[in-house]
Every structure is written in structure tokens, then in C-alpha cells.
Target: ParA family protein
Amino acid sequence: MEVITFFNNKGGVGKTTLAVNVASFIATQYEKKNRILFLDADPQANSTQMMIPDEIWEDFYGFDAKRPTIMNYLTSIEEGNSDVVYVDVPFKKTENRFAVDLIPGHPSLAIIEDILSDGWNKCISGDLGGFRKTNWLSLLKEYFKDSYDYLFIDVGPSLGALNRSILVNTDYIITPMGSDIFSLIGISNMSTWVRNWMNSYRTAVGLLHDKHNPVSIMKYPLNLNIENASRLVGFSIQQYVTKTFAEGGRRPIASYDKIIKNVPEAIETHLQVLIKNGLTIDDLNLGDIPYLYSLVPLAQTSKAPMYDLTRADGVVGGQSSSVKKYKEMLKVVCNKIRDNLGDSDAN
Model:
């Protein structure tokens, strides 16, 4: 099972929309490696809101909630221990139109941040308990590794302990970008942050071996080789701001066009250390994803992937053409992602 996290320090770049639609498209449009588990690790739980029908929200978040969320897996860590609690996948693909199994998010994830921050401080001093808390995702990976081909994770834009603990055990990252100057700053911030904690983690692994015997360390599925974590396999450029010109139709206005052209250079400059071996900047560029103003709220209301919206969901007039174009664009994006992973059907 390969873990792919959608992450950028800049919010509002269409990250969640892309993540859930890519996961769904791969789950439904390909013949191999299409068993998908989706983890909503954003305290805002936007992915969860896009998938779970409103009428059953009480089952997950009500006073007498009967169905688990990500917080049920982290109950032991919340109580100060270092283990993950294993429960059945809460929301099955047979219950949603995205055709993926979902571990729903929860706003209380924000509370875990302080606990994981303390775990990180102990981890970088070589403490085994701190390593176990920081590697909680590795425990989850081990449990689900034979059941799924991919674990897709949607995280918030934070540069904090929660996202760090996820990226420590993420195989690959995809970074959706906006066409604004703050996205470029976000890439720079992300680069500095990742480099710093990776350097600390390398040192921590050595301290761990100094303090604990190999038998104790090998009892747990810890990531002891940070060089293989969070390899960049793609970025997209979203949120075009367009203007109608007398000649040439609609196109990005000049200031945004300039930023768009600077994105590949910014990725190559700041995230070079993370790029998966063998991939060029052209390989990484998944393509441009324009605004689809009316389809987004329609998909949210219908709890459906945008490429699968129909007249029964309220699609009217020119929206049918937009759905078709989105599906064609998504196919290009997903083919490129799978090529970059080395998992295309041709391989």
C-alpha cells in the first residue's frame, strides 16, 4: 500500500476537491491498483463533508455517535499512550458515490496537535515512546497494508506536529498550487519546514539506536529511513482568474499569468530535495485545473465526485459540457500521477 498525501502550506487552492476526485477516479476508472482508503486528516474535515450525506452526520458526530472517526483510532494516543486503536473502516465504499473507503475526519484532531508535539520533542531526543507516537501512521499503514493499494490523505495547511507525523510516514506528496503569490510563499515555507524536521529526524534515528537495543526498536513498524518519505510526485496549478479579451477569448490576466509561469521554477528551486528520483519538472506538472464555479457546490450538495455529476444531480445546460471537460482533465492528471508512481496499467 502506497501513501499519498495532498499537502500545501497555502489554503484555498482546491486541494480537497482535487484529492477526493483523484481518489475516486482511480478507484473507478482503472483495472489495477484501485483499492482506495481515504483518510481525512484535516481538522476542518472538508473531505468528510464532501462524502458523507448530511442525514447520517449524527451517526458520526452526534452526542450519541455510533460510528467511529479518525479520533477513535487515536484514542490511546489522546490518553497519553503510544498505540493506535484498530477499528473497522467507518464509511465503506458501498455507502458513497466516490467508491472509496473513508476514515472520517474530526475537529478534535486539533487537540491531538499538542500531544504529538510533545511526542516529537521526545522523538528527536531518541525516546522510543516518542518515536511510536510520531509514527502512529506507520501503525495504521501496517494494519491496512494488505487491504488497499493506496491510502490517500487530505491534510490542512498547517506546518505543525500533526502534519509532520503524517509526512514522516507518507510515501508521496502531491502539492496543489494556486495562481497567487501566496502559493509561492507557501512552497518556500514548506521547504524550510520539511528540511528542518527531516534533519532532526535523521539525528533522532541515531540517538534511538544509541538508547535502545535493536530488539525493542524492531518490535514496532517505525520509519527509520526518512530519505524515502514524502517524495514529490506531482503539482497542479489551480484557481485561474480570467478576463475576457476582444481577441483570444478568456485567459488569465497578466499578473496571474506571470505567477503561473513561476510555479515550476519555484517547485524545482525549493522542493528539489523532495522530488522522486527520475522525475523531471515536466513529469511533476500534472496540469492546470481551472475554476468550475457551479460544479463545486453541486458536487458538495450531491455528495458526488464532479466527474460523475448527472442531470439527476441538477446538472443543466452547459454544465454537462463542464462535467465532461473535468473528467477529461482528471484522466490526464490521474494518468500522470500513476505514471510518476510507476503504477500505470502499461507497467
Notes: The mean pLDDT is 90. Strands lie at 2-6, 36-41, 101-103, 150-155, 172-178, 231-238, 242-245, 249-252, 285-289. The CA atoms of residues 95 and 108 lie 24 Å apart. The chain has 15 helices and nine strands.
